Amino acid sequence: MNTNLLMLWGYWDEIYQRCTRLTYIEKGNNIFRVVPLRYRGETLRTSDERTIHDGDLILKIHIHNYYFATLCRGVQDELRVALLLRRHILQSLPRLAAFLEAMEEREQIKGIVGTTMLHKGVAPLGFSISDVPMNWFFRYKRWYLRLMLRLVHPNGKRRVQTWKHDMPLKRVYMSKELLLARYGQGASTGDTL
């Protein structure tokens, strides 16, 4: 990625951060930013058979795209980018679990929920996956995430053109109980990098 473009993105990211109320889990050392909010959508059933209903309190997770872009700078191999993302998600999940455990609203939070096009390979990490309705909000989000992919991915332009009609936006989610059991204090995931 062009250094000047990355610098401009850094300025934009600071503005975005302030406007969205996103909280860093651990700035510069965690791939997630989060915001507690009420879930809006169809009922979600997690892999451990728990449910997240419309109106439940969740921790909305966002991959910190700018931070990840800085980590990927100079990486040209597509597989290395995917492995780098997986490694950082695995390293970030225990800190996310600790953050949730320390929240005042932890008893009311039902789980973590995010929206992404990078959903392949997340099921073994404990996430469940479902479709999102393609309303105006998710159409905008899909456009935005395609732009991010184009900027971050070593072959982003070609990848976006190739996937023009096949880049499904998915909801990824996990119950609070599963997150804490797998990644909370004293837990061992057994996942390998």
* Average pLDDT: 81
> Any idea what the shape is?
globular
Count of the separate structural domains:
1
CATH architecture descriptor text: 3-Layer(aba) Sandwich
Q: In percent, how much strand structure appears in the residues?
A: 15-25%
Distance between the termini: 25 Å
Strand order of the largest sheet: 1-2-5-6-8-7
Give me the secondary-structure category. Answer: alpha+beta
Classified by CATH, the class is Alpha Beta
Largest sheet: 6 strands, mixed
Could you please describe the fold and organization of this structure?
This protein has 193 residues and is of the alpha+beta class. It has helices at residues 3-20, 65-72, 78-102, 136-152, 156-162, 176-183; strands spanning 23-24, 32-38, 44-45, 51-52, 57-63, 109-116, 128-131, 170-175. The protein has one domain (3-183): Aminopeptidase, CATH 3.40.630. The protein contains 6 helices and 8 strands, in the order αβββββααββααβα. The strands form 2 sheets. It has a 6-stranded mixed β-sheet. A two-stranded antiparallel ribbon has the order 3-4. Strand 3 (44-45) and strand 4 form a beta hairpin. The two termini are 25 Å apart. The mean pLDDT is 81.
